[in-house]
Design a protein that fits this description.
The protein is α+β, with helices and mostly antiparallel strands. The chain contains 21 helices and 32 strands. It is globular.
């Protein structure tokens, strides 16, 4: 009996099952995985194997070790544990025997339908990994358990309904027989029929043994002892090194003026021109970087020429003043009538500068192309994407199945590594020197000057209240480049405001943009939450009382508010010179945060001392890891709110490295961060991007309570703080 597979060649079933020193359990589900149906004879089994591209999600070795594949990137968010944990829960696997590896980058097999109906993407962005893979991994794990139970039933010749599984052991209660998953291997390999696993029963949440418990993350030991492999660690025989000089004027075209001089330098193998850069390939990285520093390039102008980021806000204000709306995002009720009937109208502009991703590991990739240019091997830390082969087939002009991507750990992503520009650049270089492998490395200066930033934007918010102080209208206009990059998070679905309007008014400056942790939620939620406190302050209302009224129809959101109030002792006054501010955010999960700050009025420096957050993320897979995500998000939120900014003068990025791109330092971190989780039993929601956008609003609101002054331009640098104090 045999089957055909374009990925594995012709193997008979027994050989395939015994491959990789263990046993592959075939997982299938219509629309997600190739279906495995009940077979009544050998011929039908063979037909099924020939018809479907069967694959494995799990392998069991003869000593009981279990290998489970993780289809998502691991960039510190814990997917290397959370997704296999979900699988192991339904499989009833002994977690102490579980090992985890990245799955092959094959979206037809390992993709999730959680992004869009009919899609099967491998895309680790938007805090949607656990959410989109939750049902996929549960069903796949349950299918594995079903096959094992079926095998034991066949072996013991008992009805499968009489069997139960727990901790990698199958038990027949009436006879007292027990058998481990590992002991089933010889019987499974000899089976001539398989169970129908197109529909399998999932556990009741009350019976979860792994989900909801604090399980240590699988990859942490290797990261601690240095054995974890990131793409930058990859070394191949005869490997060459590539670097690019891209300048700091986005979109400018280069003309190299000293090519012969560069080619005469030691170790230089090739110069590769790009439309926007000059590439150098050398035998050593040091040689490539030395040559890069000696390049003489005449740069053209570009769409960014003449652009000044600080001055452009005046143009943004003019765009916001225009009577004509932009792209309408929200239009509920009658906003104009509400303003006409208002007791009082509030209006304010909020601004935010460009922000850099600042991921710790510099962008890099290793690619080896065969001499005939028909196949490629890729080693890279990527957040994957709509193309799991990361653009390499297009660069090389070969079929996707001829590209094999070896996913590595990511030393930070935050959205930057969901763009494949650096992978495609490496493919261009590797094609030039095939079959030798090439490692492309972006220096920190490369990535900071020619990076892809969270867009700058202006938010104009106009709101009205009636005679009772109740908010009746809320209008939000965002001006900036990037569409959803600036417009996400603009809706107020959890606030009962009867008349709402929001629109986006487009600009373009030729600056490279990309998703940055929480995308538009950061600027938009800062503006929304700051406006709410401005109204509460003017109306002499407690900002918590104001939000309670607004959340009347959103009990889950209200629960996070009440819990944050409780754990922060909101009702108790802060010590002299300190103040608390509150902010609510939804980004998949729902969260309310409180920051307590102090202010040095001489220097203008804000210090965040304590942070409390209450979070409803639905079903919690790993509580301790969720808290870690909250802590990381809060630190990143404080950093972006107080320090981080990219400035552009005459189209050129002014910052070069971490000496002039400020990040939060250890001495600036809060003294404590307390997170309380509110399990709701709903489908798991993302947590990686909930904490970050709530911080700026909470800090600004604490500043308002402390000083009676408003902070409306992120980051809140000391200069801007002093300006606000003196306004």
């Amino acid at each position: 009996m045999s089957y055909k597979s374009s990925k594995t060649g012709n193997l008979n079933r027994r050989e395939f099952l015994k491959s990789s020193s263990g046993i592959a359990l075939f997982i299938g589900a219509s629309g997600i995985f190739p279906a495995l149906v009940s077979c009544t004879d050998t011929k039908k089994i063979q037909e099924q194997f020939e018809k479907h591209a069967i694959t494995a999600w799990v392998k069991i070795s003869e000593d009981g070790q279990i290998l489970i594949y993780n289809p998502a990137s691991e960039m510190g968010q814990g997917s290397m544990t959370s997704l296999p944990l979900i699988f192991a829960e339904e499989m009833d696997a002994d977690w102490s025997k579980v090992h985890v590896e990245f799955s092959p980058q094959e979206s037809d097999i390992y993709g999730s339908p959680g992004w869009a109906p009919g899609s099967k993407l491998m895309f680790t962005v938007g805090s949607r990994t656990t959410n989109s893979y939750f049902n996929v991994m549960r069903k796949a794990g349950a299918q594995a358990r079903t096959i094992l139970l079926f095998t034991a039933a066949q072996h013991w010749k008992v009805p499968v309904e009489e069997l139960s599984a727990s901790n990698s052991i199958i038990t027949h209660k009436s006879s007292g027989k027990k058998i481990s998953y590992a002991e089933l291997i010889p019987y499974l390999t000899e089976m001539e029929t398989l169970p129908d696993v197109s529909e399998v029963a999932l556990k009741d949440a009350a019976n979860f043994q792994l989900i909801g418990t604090d399980i240590p993350r699988t990859e942490i030991p290797s990261k601690v002892d240095g054995t974890a492999q990131f793409a930058i660690d990859v070394r191949l025989p005869n490997m060459l090194y590539g670097v690019l000089e891209r300048g700091n004027l986005h979109g400018a075209k280069p003309t190299l003026l000293n090519e012969s001089e560069i080619m005469g330098l030691e170790g230089i193998v090739k110069i590769v021109p790009f439309d926007y850069a000059i590439g150098i390939i050398a035998t050593k990285l040091e040689q490539a970087l030395k040559a890069k520093n000696q390049l003489k390039i005449d740069w053209s102008t570009s769409n960014a020429s003449g652009f000044n980021s600080e001055e452009i806000y005046r143009e943004y204000e003019k765009i916001a003043n225009q009577n004509q709306s932009g792209e309408v995002i929200t239009n509920e009720g009658d906003i104009n009538q509400a303003f006409r009937n208002a007791s009082k109208v509030y209006q304010a502009d909020f601004k935010n500068d460009y922000v850099y991703h600042a991921q710790l590991e510099p962008l890099n990739a290793v690619i080896q192309v065969t001499e005939d240019l028909q196949k490629a091997e890729v080693w890279v830390g990527s957040q994957q994407g709509t193309d799991t082969k990361l653009g390499v087939p297009g660069v090389l002009g070969i079929p996707p199945e001829n590209v094999n991507v070896h996913l590595q750990y990511l030393g930070g992503g935050f959205g930057r590594r969901s763009l494949n520009d650096f992978v495609e650049e490496c493919a261009v270089l590797a094609k030039e020197v095939a079959p030798k492998p090439v490692k492309l490395i972006w220096t920190r200066e490369d990535d900071l000057r020619y990076g892809t930033y969270r867009p700058m934007s202006l938010q104009r918010i106009k709101a009205s209240v009636d005679f009772s102080g109740t908010i009746q209208a809320f209008s939000h206009t965002v001006v900036g480049d990037g569409g959803n990059l600036v417009a996400s998070g603009i809706r107020n679905d959890h606030y009962a405001i009867p008349n709402q309007f929001a629109d986006w008014r487009s600009t373009s400056h030729g600056i490279r943009l990309k998703h940055w942790r929480s995308v538009g939620h950061g600027p938009n939620k800062f503006a929304i939450e700051s406006m709410l406190d401005q109204i509460a302050y003017d109306q002499q209302m407690d900002p918590v009382a104001l939000r309670r009224k607004l959340m009347v129809n959103s009990p889950r959101a209200l629960a996070t508010l009440e819990k944050a109030v409780e754990i922060s002792n909101w009702e108790e006054p802060s010590p002299e010179g300190y103040a608390k501010g509150i902010s609510f955010v939804e980004h998949g999960s729902l969260g309310t945060g409180v920051c307590e700050i102090s202010l040095n009025k001489e220097t203008g420096e804000i210090k965040v001392h304590r942070v409390w957050i209450a979070l409803d993320a639905g079903t919690i897979i790993q509580p301790d890891n969720v808290k870690a995500q909250m802590e990381g998000g809060i630190i990143m939120g404080i950093s972006s709110a107080l320090k981080e900014r990219i400035s552009v003068v005459n189209g050129q990025v002014q910052q070069r490295n971490f000496n002039d791109y400020s990040l939060l330092r250890m001495q600036d971190a809060p003294e404590s961060i307390e997170t309380v989780l509110i399990p709701s039993g709903e489908t798991p929601q993302g947590v990686g991007e909930t904490a970050t956008p709530m911080v700026a609003g909470a800090i600004a609101n604490a500043f308002l309570h402390l000083t009676g002054k408003h902070l409306r331009h992120m980051p809140f640098t000391p200069e801007r703080v002093l300006e606000a104090l003196n306004s």
